[in-house]
Amino acid sequence: MSTKRSHLRFRLTSNHRLTYLTPSLFLLTIFSLFLFLSLKPHHSPPKPHPTPTTTSTSPTTLPSLPRFAYFITGSTGDGSRLNRLLRAVYHRRNYYLLHLDLEASDAERGDLVKSVGGLENVMVVGKANLVTSKGPTMIACLLHAVAILLKRGKDWNWFINLSAQDYPLMPQDDILHIFSYLPRDLNFLEHTTNIGWKEFQRARPIIIDPGLYHSKKSGVFWAKEKRSMPASFKLFMGSAWVVLTRPFLEFCVWGWDNLPRTLLMYYTNFLSSPEGYFHTVICNHKDYQNTTVNHDMHFIKWDNPPKQFPVNLTIQHFSEMLESGAPFAHSFSKDDPVLDKIDTELLGRRSDQSNIIFEKIDAIRPTQSSKRLEKLVSDLLSTQNFRPKQCK
Ligand SMILES: *[C@@H]1O[C@H](CO)[C@@H](O)[C@H](O)[C@H]1NC(C)=O
Ligand SMILES: *[C@@H]1O[C@H](CO)[C@@H](O)[C@H](O)[C@H]1NC(C)=O
Ligand SMILES: *[C@@H]1O[C@H](CO)[C@@H](O)[C@H](O)[C@H]1NC(C)=O
Q: Which ligand 1 atom sits closest to the C-alpha of 74?
């Protein structure tokens, strides 16, 4: 691991030890800027770090560390990849919910449960969902996961959606560290209202997902009729990968305003609903549109012109991945050698290392990788990017 010890400061107290990078001026500026420019107070103020019993002598007050709720999904044959991915993104602070869809056998699901057994903050969906590729059952499955995580995990801040083909590009410590400086109501999702060809490929066709009423997986089918563009709300589309806040997801799941529910019904007949549902909900509600950051926190590479699936990332893309500053990348083939390189050079783990090293729940030791994420976040929140790219 490329930790530069000279960049670290230590604070030692009797029962609790924190190690962290000196927060750069830039992030501190953003942080204080947001204290003034704050979005809307529909979230509770950040809690302070748990106070050690002996009062700290440290003059600095650090922003409190957040918690993430991860949802990691796969299908038949993905059990070992989910297990590897879980270990690569594991931290005791976070919650993890794993889902192997109904195509995977109960035996495979059982193996997954065994392999992650004993980790108290990891859950596996026992009653799996049938998920149709490009069908609304994808969103149903995601909202199911959110509901479980809202019920079982009391105090997380952001929900992060990963698939078996994803992998992190930095340790959790770095992501927790950088996110600790962010206002807790920022939602990261790549989106645009300029949908172009998608109007005819996505917005006008009407599809039906047999996964809603059959128990065997099949494809979606198309109705003969086309529908007109919506008039009572504006359509937004973008990347299916999202990092969303707890308050926004409570709004979606509880639906005290009817918008998330009516849009959910609208999206029942929409091809590839994960590329638009949250984007459309968030940008059509005044309480949330100002919380959007137009980025999906993933490095994804497309061919030119783009094919149906993104490029499989290999060692050849390693430096490009790093330059992006993104905390995650997609898509990797199973056990591609680049994953070993990421394990050893970025995550500080050995690829044959299946055991998770248990860290203290409040201990984070950011590496140099946090600088990459810091730069990305600073760019995204700069005056020329942040407001001008919201819901446009
Ligand atoms: C979440 O991840 C799954 C892959 O597991 C992906 O299919 C889906 O599009 C993602 N996004 C949403 C909003 O469901
Ligand atoms: C959102 O931002 C716009 C432009 O900055 C501002 O006019 C509007 O009042 C904000 N809305 C809320 C709910 O804060
Ligand atoms: C990526 O690799 C998988 C096998 O792991 C293969 O099925 C798929 O076609 C590849 N995708 C591309 C875009 O090359």
A: 5
Within a domain: 162: yes
**pLDDT for the residue 65:** 96
Task: Give the integer Cα–Cα distance in Å for 367 and 2.
Answer: 7
φ, ψ of residue 274 to 5 degrees: the values are -65, -15
Q: Which domain holds residue 312?
A: 68-193+236-389
* Burial (CB count within 10 angstroms: exposed 0-12, middle 13-18, buried 19+), residue 119: middle
Closest C-alpha to ligand 3, atom 13: 311
**Contact indicator for 289, 391 with CB cutoff of 8 Å:** yes
Question: What pTM does this model have?
Answer: 0.86
Q: Which residues contact 9 (CB under 8 A, 6 or more apart)?
A: 19, 20, 21, 22
pLDDT tens string 25-64: 556 556 555 544 444 333 333 333 443 333 334 446 889 9
Q: Name the nearest CA neighbour of 228 among 200, 197, 207.
A: 200
Instruction: Indicate which CATH number applies to the domain containing 281.
Output: 3.90.550
| Residue 116 in contact with ligand 1 by CB distance below 6 A | no
Q: Indicate which atom in ligand 1 lies nearest the CA of residue 278.
A: 13
Give the total number of structural domains in the chain. 1
Task: Check residue 60 and give its pLDDT.
Answer: 67
267 assigned to some structural domain = yes
CA separation for the pair 195, 113 (Å, rounded): 41
Residue 179 is assigned to a structural domain of this protein: yes
Predicted confidence at residue 351, as pLDDT, reads 55
- Ligand with the closest atom to the CA of 283: 2
Is residue 312 within 6 Å of ligand 3 at its C-beta?
A: yes
Tell me the Cα Rg of the chain: 21
Ligand 3 atom, smallest distance to 308 CA: 13
pLDDT tens readout for residues 233-270:
999 999 999 999 999 999 999 999 999 999 999 999 99
Is 145 inside a domain boundary? yes
What local confidence, expressed as pLDDT, does residue 359 receive?
66
